[in-house]
Amino acid sequence: MSRSFSRTVVGTAIVAAVTMIGPPANADVASVSVAAGPEGLLTGCRYTVTAAVTDSMIPPGSVFFLLAGGVIPGDGERIPGEAVHHPENNTVTASWTPTRIGSQNLIGMQSEPGRYTSSKFITVDVVGSGLDTGSSCLRIG
Q1: Region 36-42: what's the mean pLDDT?
Q2: What stretch of H or E contains 20?
Q3: pLDDT tens readout for residues 104-119
Q4: What's the CA angle centered on 120, arms 118 and 125, to 5 degrees?
Q5: What's the distance, Cα to Cα, between the start and end of the chain in Å?
Q6: Contact in structure between 66 and 107 (CB atoms under 8 Å)
Q7: pTM, full prediction
């Protein structure tokens, strides 16, 4: 086999592999929402936050949630825990338990190594304190 033929075979194999794998997914965050109960958002109770994304293929951990503004000091804080990707409906969800009463920004952010690529936010108002009973939230303050 000549050198030029082996280079052609290797080059063709690399092009085929790149074509099959494709470029990395770049989902954009399209919207953010939170499922509040009838009493509104209360500290001490768990809520599901959701980010709608534009792509069903996203790397694990590339979409996450933050809180900022209002009563949050500094540049904000990341909502603890792992966000779960749902490719069947292009959403990412996480569980959030508010710790502060007042207005704050709930941010869904998508990133890739070294940079943020998109984000959306909504302003939410945590109106009081609650007790998480497991299946519901009882307002206590």
Answers
A1: 92
A2: helix 3-21
A3: 999 999 988 777 788 9
A4: 155
A5: 81
A6: yes
A7: 0.76
